[in-house]
Design brief:
This protein is α+β, with helices and mostly antiparallel strands. The protein is about 45% helix and about 15% strand. The chain has 3 domains: about 110 residues, Orthogonal Bundle (Butyryl-Coa Dehydrogenase, subunit A, domain 1); about 110 residues, Butyryl-CoA Dehydrogenase, subunit A, domain 2 (Beta Barrel); about 130 residues, Butyryl-CoA Dehydrogenase, subunit A, domain 3 (Up-down Bundle). The chain contains 11 helices and 8 strands. The strands form 2 sheets. A 4-stranded mixed sheet has the order 1-4-5-8. Strands 2-3-7-6 form a 4-stranded antiparallel sheet, with no helix packed on it. It is globular, with a radius of gyration of 21 Å. The structure holds flavin-adenine dinucleotide.
């Protein structure tokens, strides 16, 4: 398949309408105010409602609580949620990557006990990859798990763990065998219950003052054998398959969509030539990125592993998200302001300016993605 094979989403128009109605009801009820929230905003009650409406775990089999829908239908739901600025933070990671990872590689017990709860919007996940001094060079993780009767005992620390203070589980990458010449060997992914004894979660505040990140400390924390993902020692294969789920979706180019929407509203129906040019530039890039992203969804649906294509869309998409704030500032004179109730544009601008530096870091930095792309193209 190629990027120009863009699957047809028109069979899912009824689903699109259903999501729009669902979101309109929540917006009317004041569950969320679009330009104040984004897909990473954590809201447990919104997530429960999304679960009740069948919008989580959509592609999973019915016997684990899913709806057995196609990846393309899920794409339509995801892009509507993102475009509306819906607060999906409680379920996003579980729906996008942890659940699919457990479905493919988890034990029977993990599948049966955890997946239906995720699909109902009652069980939330975090990502336990990065460690202090170990982010991009993930294979160098130092958190250790030693064999114990019936399971593993973890000691060490993870950092930048989004929502660790709120989620039920994280999937942690840990070292289970001594490092050899090939550091990618001897790693294992474990599903860690955040209520287990021996876990301490400490907050780390971000640039905007929010508490989403955490540092998680493990002190002899026990994880049972049936919470291993894949098999012991397969952690590197597991983590790379999880990362391609993390990198391939529309959340990698729609994070600043609320600002673009507010910008068009602010400019109004009679733009100055420079405003028309800047908005045209953003919309044409958005259209191209959307086609590429839908094409990646089609590749996933067809059973391919589009890791390089996904890295390309994430690199271009997050660059576009960052440019949106820069071009918006050239198009309209306005000060970014938080909590400016009467001025959605000023709020959306503040929100994107404060969060956009992270867009090219989370899920793998720009430089690392470009390395993946170069390798995929045979350039390194
Ligand atoms: C909003 C946000 C949410 C996050 N959530 C989570 C989470 O929930 N769980 C989790 O585990 N992690 C999370 N992270 C961490 C994120 O994945 C890491 O920050 C990222 O992988 C980079 O690691 P690092 O911060 O250690 O930087 P480093 O790896 O130290 O990199 C520093 C700089 O050096 C560059 N660099 C590093 N190696 C190379 C190389 N080989 N070639 C060229 N350049 C290189 C990088 O591109 C970067 O610019 C989150 C990050 C952000 C910003």
């Amino acid at each position: 398949m190629h990027f120009d094979d863009v699957p047809d989403l028109s069979p899912y128009e009824a689903t699109r309408e259903r999501v729009r109605e669902f979101l309109a009801v929540h917006a009317r009820q004041g569950t969320f105010v679009p330009w104040k929230t984004t897909w990473s905003t954590f809201d447990a009650s919104f997530t429960r409602s999304a679960g009740e409406h069948g919008f989580i775990g959509m592609t999973w089999p019915q016997h684990v609580g899913g709806c057995q829908r196609s990846a393309l239908e899920r794409y339509v739901v995801a892009e509507e949620m993102l475009a509306a600025g819906a607060p999906c933070g409680a379920h996003w990671i579980a729906d996008r990557q942890s659940g699919p990872q457990i479905l493919r590689h988890g034990s029977d017990r993990a599948r049966q006990e955890i997946l239906p709860r995720i699909a109902r919007g009652e069980c939330w996940f975090g990502i336990g990859m990065s460690e202090p001094d170990v982010g991009s060079d993930l294979a160098s993780v130092r958190t250790r798990a030693d064999k114990a009767p019936g399971g593993w005992r973890i000691n060490g620390s993870k950092i930048w763990t989004t929502n660790a203070h709120q989620v039920h589980y994280i999937i942690a990458l840990v070292r289970t065998e001594q490092a050899t010449a090939r550091k990618h060997d001897g790693l294992t992914q474990l599903i860690v219950d955040m209520d287990a004894p021996g876990i301490t979660v400490r907050p780390v505040r971000d640039l905007s003052g929010h508490h989403e990140f955490n540092q998680v400390h493990f002190d002899d924390c026990f994880v049972p054998d049936d919470m291993v993902v894949g098999a012991p020692g397969q952690g590197w294969q597991m983590v790379t398959s999880e990362l391609s789920l993390e990198r391939s979706g529309p959340d990698r180019f729609l994070s600043a969509y609320q600002l673009l929407d507010a910008l068009v509203e602010r400019i109004g129906p009679e733009p100055q030539p420079h405003q028309a040019m800047l908005v045209g530039k953003l919309v044409s890039q958005l259209t191209a990125l959307r086609r590429m992203s839908i094409s990646v969804a089609g590749m996933l649906e067809a059973g391919h592993n589009p890791a390089v294509e996904a890295a390309l869309v994430k690199d271009l998409g997050t660059t576009f998200e960052q440019q949106t704030a820069e071009l918006a500032r050239l198009a309209v004179e306005a000060q970014p302001r938080q909590h400016a109730a009467a001025d959605p544009y000023a709020e959306a601008l503040a929100q994107v300016m404060l969060t956009s530096p992270s867009f090219t870091l989370r899920g793998g930095t720009r430089e690392i993605l470009r390395g993946v792309i170069a390798r995929g193209l045979g350039l390194r």
